[in-house]
Write a structure and sequence with these properties.
This protein is α+β, with helices and mostly antiparallel strands and 241 residues long. It is 16% helix and 46% strand.
Length: 241
C-alpha cells in the first residue's frame, strides 16, 4: 500500500499519553501528532529518532498529523497499527499470502461472540476468521509480540480457539512491520499469559502466520513469511515455513 502523499519528515522529541507525540519538523517547527499505536513501542519511541508523518485534512480533527514510520538503526518501522488489516487484505488479493488463497470474499471487522475479528474470508470451502497483529518489537533479529500486556489480544486467541472447535478455520496473523527480523515469537517476559494462550491455540488448531513487510516512505507491503517459534519447557516447537 502507498502511504499518503505530502509526507513530512521530522525528529521525535517524545511520545506520551500513549496516543500523542511531539515532533520537530525539518522546518524547525515543533508539532504534536497522533500516535496510532497503543503498545509500549519499546525501541521505537526513542527521542531523536527520524520519523515520517502523514497529514489528514478531515474537519474537526484536533491533531491533523499521524505518525506513520520511525527509523531505528537505519531500518524503517511501521508504527501505525490501523493499516495492518489492509496490508493483509492486499497480501491475500495480490497472491503473496499463499496460505489464505481460494476465498471468494473478504469482510473487515466482523463480530463473533464477544470479539470483533479483523477479517472474515468466505468461500465454497467454508469460512476463515483472521485476527491481525502489528509487530514492531524486535531483539537480535527476532520479532516479538506483544510489547505490553494485552488483555484484548488474549481474548482474541480464546475466540480463535472457539472458531476452530466449532469446525471453522482460525488464523492469528502477525505483520512484522520492519525488515530486520528473521523469525517471530511470543514475548513471554512481557505477557506470559499471552504466550501460554498462543501455544494452546496452536495445539488446538489455530494457525499462526507471520509475514515480514517491506517498509519505506514509498510504501508498505508484505513480502515474505517468517517462522513462528514457540519454546516450551521440554524443547522447542517451531512452525516452519
Amino acid at each position: 500500500m502507498n502511504l499518503p502523499e505530502n509526507l513530512l519528515t521530522g525528529v521525535l522529541i517524545q511520545r506520551y499519553k500513549r496516543f500523542l507525540a511531539d515532533v520537530i519538523l525539518a522546518s524547525g517547527e515543533t508539532i504534536t501528532v497522533h500516535c496510532p499505536n497503543s503498545g509500549s513501542m519499546t525501541g521505537c519511541a526513542v527521542p531523536g529518532s527520524p520519523v515520517i508523518l502523514s497529514r489528514s485534512d478531515r474537519p474537526g480533527r484536533k491533531y491533523p498529523h499521524t505518525w506513520e514510520l520511525v527509523q531505528v538503526d537505519g531500518c524503517w518501522i511501521g508504527v501505525n497499527t490501523g493499516i495492518t488489516p489492509t496490508l493483509v487484505r492486499e497480501g491475500i488479493l495480490g497472491g503473496v499470502v499463499a496460505e489464505l488463497q481460494g476465498y471468494e470474499s473478504i469482510r473487515p471487522e466482523v463480530t463473533r461472540g464477544d470479539s470483533r475479528l479483523d477479517l472474515l474470508l468466505t468461500g465454497e470451502g467454508g469460512r476463515c476468521w483472521v485476527e491481525v497483529k502489528n509487530v514492531t518489537l524486535a531483539e537480535d533479529g527476532l520479532a516479538l509480540f506483544p510489547d505490553s500486556v494485552t488483555l484484548r489480544g488474549q481474548k482474541h486467541l480464546i475466540e480463535l480457539m472457539d472458531v476452530v472447535r466449532s469446525g471453522e478455520r482460525g488464523v492469528i496473523f502477525y505483520v512484522v512491520q520492519r525488515g530486520d527480523c528473521r523469525a517471530m515469537a511470543p514475548a513471554d517476559r512481557i505477557d506470559p499469559r499471552y504466550g501460554v494462550l498462543l501455544r494452546e491455540a496452536v495445539t488446538v488448531g489455530v494457525e499462526a502466520l507471520a509475514y515480514r513487510a517491506d517498509v519505506s516512505p514509498a510504501g508498505i507491503s508484505l513480502v515474505t513469511r517468517l517462522p513462528v517459534r514457540l519454546t516450551v519447557d521440554n524443547g522447542q516447537l517451531t512452525i516452519d515455513n
